[in-house]
Design goal:
- It contains eight helices and no strands.
- Helix 3 runs antiparallel to helix 4, helix 3 runs parallel beside helix 5 and helix 5 runs parallel beside helix 7.
């Protein structure tokens, strides 16, 4: 009886080990496949959408990088919006950092074209996404540097309106409103 239980336990352990091995080989193959797709995207070759959708969030991030290289900003934005909340905190910080880079690049292009009405909101969005990235990963020096660049492009000025309670001096106000220069004593 004990021999039968021992025999059964050994076969069960062998079967379990074999199943774990097959699962690990499948996972390694999937990682190798995703890495090949990422290499293709980084080198500038497009990948079919169905391969990207079934892959990991890093694969979608690489596709967003591909779109950014091709200056297809709307597709970058839609791709990054799909992966913003996927993965761990480090990955989420990377996704927000890349989104901030997209906004900052567009803001700089608009500023160089002297289109400040378009550059200002883009710089504001860049600062917001860099801050979000830093909230998730405070050690991200690239996000800190790019936030500084965005701050230089669009500084934040806290407007303070302090009401002036002093009475207005009529003489000084009259003097500054009189046209011409004074010519000495009357």
């Amino acid at each position: 009886m004990i021999r039968t239980i021992r025999h059964f336990t050994l076969w069960a352990a062998l079967a379990l080990s074999l199943a774990a091995f097959v699962y690990s080989v499948g996972a390694l193959y999937g990682i190798h496949h995703d890495n090949n797709l990422i290499r293709q995207l980084i080198s500038g070759k497009d990948v079919a959408v169905n391969k990207v959708i079934s892959g990991e969030p890093e694969l979608r991030l690489a596709r967003a990088f591909y779109f950014k290289q091709k200056h297809r900003y709307d597709e970058v934005l839609s791709t990054l919006s799909l992966v913003m909340d996927k993965g761990d905190r480090n990955f989420q910080a990377k996704a927000r950092y890349n989104l901030g880079n997209l906004y900052l690049e567009q803001a700089v292009q608009q500023a160089k074209a002297m289109n400040m009405n378009a550059a200002l909101p883009l710089a504001g969005l860049a600062k917001q996404t860099y801050r979000q990235a830093l909230a998730l990963d405070s050690g991200n020096w690239d996000a800190k540097y790019n936030l500084e660049v965005a701050m230089r492009l669009l500084p934040e000025m806290n407007r303070v309106d302090i009401p002036d309670d002093r009475p207005i001096n009529q003489k000084s106000q009259l003097w500054t409103t009189v046209p011409g220069f004074p010519r000495g004593l009357p």
